[in-house]
Recover the amino acids of this structure.
């Protein structure tokens, strides 16, 4: 056995993250670790990688008991890890970040060269010289993958690696991983995506609530049987009714916007419409202009040319977010902590970011009303929280997202824009959020969803457009779209003539 | 061995206990200091913690000293909560004192007893104007407000020196660098005959209420704090960061200027080079020891003024240098910073770890 874990336990102040977990990985095996967010997958991987010490249990590496005291010790053994949450220094360049993690035998220039080689071999597009703070989430993850591959690892740990890749790139990554495995490298593949695990992995350990609930051969399982092991039930099915699209609510015409940041994406003549009672999805690999487009639509960036964004035929391109909100445009950003909510403030106070019903004359806050709104949101959207006084950061990702999405839905928006609605959210909460978005649509609201999860877009959208290199494709009805076609478009390959027609 | 372990949630109790713990440690270190200096530690501590509260007169003097600290620290608390780092309150205090003095010197013999009101308003405007320079440079040129506000302190000092050594020097003042003694009508009314304590104390206590309401009961205060805690969330919500910058600086500048006006129109009664007594810097400590909370700041302002008075008494009673005040202030700030660790962490005694079996 390459790696063996015996009865690993880890207690955190509030939760037992791992409870007597055992796991065996053979050389050249692609081993899936399946579980919802909060099931203890990430903690287990950090233990293997030496970033967290277990309270109890034994780790054996090639049959020998070992103590992995630090990530450096793990790397010395030949263990590499790609974190789900990035561990990059914002002020340094990609190459400098990679260099920091290596022993200093190589010069920075050599490392830069190696990064280009590795990135080229595995089809991961990265520019080593860019400062990390200018990178999108997807680009940061690519840096992390390249960094892990730099050291020719014996065991590679990948934590949810495909969320930022096009379907084609996922296939390329799988080819890479299979190649690595055939060369004898073991791979621990952490995911909650059942299809991927069934397509790629040889063996699967399922975690729920910190405990192992099953060890199976994923190729012989169905999505339903894996799902039962993972969440104890089959995922709830969405009720999908045919959309009855109404009048145009949001009209984007020739929206071009010079990038604010030297490494951002310049938006190039973007045009599309969103109608009342429909869900329009924007697919695309992160870092292709989604952030910039969202900022222009939400009013966080008000440099858009006059007339390029209209809400109910009124030009809103230069309006501040509060003005847009008054006209019914609400927005859920992809970052929950720090943007959608203030981490240290209570849920009650966080309602005040976008809801002003409790603000009286002269800016007086009616504290009772503020708390009542938070209480109502908690109850209506089944948010698991201590109460209106709980700090936003004390909630799990899924519960905070339910709260934020709920806060905007409860405002009775006429247009709801949601970026990455279910990123890092557990299956149950994700299904609930998608259901709420569809219910909103059925009530005649226009919904615009940006997501990197194609499955999600296909599940809830009526029409899709694709964003690539700051331009958008024509729209296609979801019923007529295929994953392959959208995947091709995600690389910017759609017919040029059609792209000029409004979507 | 002792280990620091992260708490699941920051402890509210500890955030209140931390300043008290810091005070206790400061007292312990102070005791050691007195012993090392060859003084009776009990007498030494009594000078700092008993003498200033021993009589009605001592208490009124304590309130006198605490007033400017309280006023300035209230403004700074709003500033720091908005993530605007104005550390030049001393300069705003000086300019407030200068403008207030300028107005006070306009008073004539027949001016009414209300004249202290425009004098204080002048102080507020002076402090605001000085802080506005910081806001303008930050807003237009993105100049760092820490450096600009600090450097403007020294500019303000030179301005003060120029005036009292030059155009504003009292012609009958035996060439001392000081202005004329202001007329009675410009004096801030005293509360009780025989005590120096004046209306400033009332203004300061009212300000506590006003600032509490601003911070915790108004949308404007909420917006300021969101800007400080999570700038991206403020942008998402549509709260203007420029407005927050200007509001925070003008408010804190105005409060510091008010304190400056109260000093010259109160106990001092004239402008001298000794007007700046370091209140603007001490108020930074006061604001943090008070947890940036208006009510907390009342207590920390009183504590800090005990250090001021104690330092002066230590000089006369124990023959110790006055800089002891600064030592105590510094000790308190450092121990507070250390104790604040306990808000997010707790100390755990852990026996040698069994560990992962080797």
């Amino acid at each position: 056995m390459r790696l063996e874990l015996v009865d690993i336990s880890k207690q955190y102040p509030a939760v037992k993250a791992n409870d007597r977990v055992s796991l065996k990985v053979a050389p050249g095996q692609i081993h899936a670790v399946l579980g919802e967010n909060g099931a203890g997958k990430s903690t287990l991987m950090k233990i293997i990688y030496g970033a967290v010490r277990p309270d109890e249990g034994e780790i054996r590496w090639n049959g020998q008991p070992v103590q992995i005291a630090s990530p450096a010790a793990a790397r010395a053994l030949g263990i590499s890890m790609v974190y789900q949450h990035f561990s990059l220094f914002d002020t340094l360049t990609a190459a400098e970040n990679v260099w920091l993690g290596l022993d200093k035998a190589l010069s920075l220039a050599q490392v830069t060269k190696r990064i280009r080689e590795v990135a080229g071999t595995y089809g991961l597009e990265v520019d080593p010289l860019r400062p990390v703070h200018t990178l999108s989430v997807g680009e940061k993850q690519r840096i992390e993958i390249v960094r892990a591959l730099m050291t020719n690892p014996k065991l590679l740990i990948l934590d949810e690696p495909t969320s930022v890749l096009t379907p084609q790139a996922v296939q390329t990554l799988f080819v890479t991983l299979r190649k690595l495995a055939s060369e004898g490298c073991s791979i621990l593949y952490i995911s909650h995506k059942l299809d991927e695990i069934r397509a790629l992995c040889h063996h699967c350990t399922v975690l729920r609530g910190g405990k192992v609930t099953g060890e199976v051969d994923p190729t012989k399982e169905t999505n339903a049987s894996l799902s039962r092991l993972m969440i104890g039930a089959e995922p709830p099915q969405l009720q999908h009714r045919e959309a009855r699209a109404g009048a145009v609510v949001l009209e984007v015409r020739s929206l071009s916007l010079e990038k604010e940041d030297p490494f951002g994406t310049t938006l190039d003549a973007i045009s599309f419409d969103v109608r009342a009672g429909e869900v329009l999805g924007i697919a695309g690999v992160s870092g292709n202009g989604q952030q910039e487009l969202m900022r222009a639509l939400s009013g966080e960036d008000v440099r858009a040319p006059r007339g390029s964004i209209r809400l109910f035929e009124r030009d809103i391109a230069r309006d501040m977010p509060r003005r847009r909100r008054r006209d019914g445009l609400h927005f859920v950003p992809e970052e929950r902590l720090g943007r959608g909510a203030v981490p240290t403030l209570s849920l009650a106070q966080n309602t005040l970011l976008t809801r002003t019903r409790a603000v009286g004359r002269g800016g007086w806050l009616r504290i009772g009303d503020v708390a009542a709104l938070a209480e109502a949101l908690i109850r209506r959207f089944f948010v698991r929280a201590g109460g209106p006084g709980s700090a936003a950061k004390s909630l799990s990702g899924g519960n905070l997202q339910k709260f934020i999405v709920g806060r905007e839905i409860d405002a009775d928006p006429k247009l709801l824009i949601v970026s990455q609605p279910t990123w890092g959210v557990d299956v149950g909460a994700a299904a609930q959020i998608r259901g709420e978005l569809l219910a909103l649509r059925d009530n005649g609201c226009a919904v615009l969803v940006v997501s990197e999860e194609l499955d999600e877009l296909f599940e809830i959208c009526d029409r899709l457009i694709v964003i690539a290199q700051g331009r958008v494709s024509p729209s296609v009805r979801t019923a007529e779209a295929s994953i392959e076609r959208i995947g091709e478009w995600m690389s910017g390959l759609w017919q040029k003539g059609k792209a000029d027609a409004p979507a | 061995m002792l280990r620091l372990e992260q708490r699941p949630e920051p402890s509210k109790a500890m955030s209140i206990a931390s300043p008290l713990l810091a005070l206790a440690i400061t007292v312990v270190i102070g005791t050691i200091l007195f012993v090392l200096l060859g003084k009776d530690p009990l007498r030494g501590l009594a000078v700092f913690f008993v003498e200033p509260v021993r009589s009605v007169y001592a208490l009124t003097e304590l309130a006198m000293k605490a007033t400017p600290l309280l006023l300035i620290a209230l403004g700074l608390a709003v500033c720091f909560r908005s993530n605007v780092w104005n550390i030049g309150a001393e300069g705003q205090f000086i300019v407030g004192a200068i403008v207030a003095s300028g107005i006070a010197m306009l008073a004539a013999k027949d001016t009414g007893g209300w004249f202290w009101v425009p004098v204080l308003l002048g102080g507020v405007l002076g402090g605001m104007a000085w802080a506005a320079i910081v806001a303008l440079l930050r807003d237009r040129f993105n100049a760092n407000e820490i450096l600009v506000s600090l450097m403007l302190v020294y500019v303000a000092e030179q301005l003060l020196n120029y005036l009292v050594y030059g155009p504003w020097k009292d012609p009958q003042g035996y060439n001392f660098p000081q202005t004329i003694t202001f007329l009675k009508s410009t004096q801030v009314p005293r509360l009780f005959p025989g005590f120096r304590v004046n209306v400033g104390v009332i203004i300061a206590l009212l300000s506590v209420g006003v600032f509490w309401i601003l911070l915790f009961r108004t949308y404007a205060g909420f917006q300021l704090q969101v800007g400080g805690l999570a700038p991206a969330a403020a942008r998402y919500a549509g709260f203007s960061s420029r407005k927050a910058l200007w509001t925070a600086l003008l408010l804190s500048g105005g409060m510091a200027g008010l304190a400056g006006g109260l000093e010259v129109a109160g106990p001092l009664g004239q402008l001298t080079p000794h007007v700046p007594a370091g209140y603007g810097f001490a108020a930074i400590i006061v604001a943090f020891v008070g947890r940036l909370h208006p009510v907390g700041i009342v207590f920390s302002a009183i504590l800090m003024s005990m250090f001021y008075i104690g330092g002066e008494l230590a000089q006369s009673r124990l023959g110790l240098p006055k800089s002891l005040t600064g030592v105590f202030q510094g000790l308190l700030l450092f121990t507070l910073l250390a104790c604040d660790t306990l808000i997010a962490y707790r100390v755990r005694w852990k026996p040698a770890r069994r560990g992962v079996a080797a």
Remarks:
- The longest helix of chain B spans residues 241-268.
- DSSP finds 14 helices and two strands in chain B.
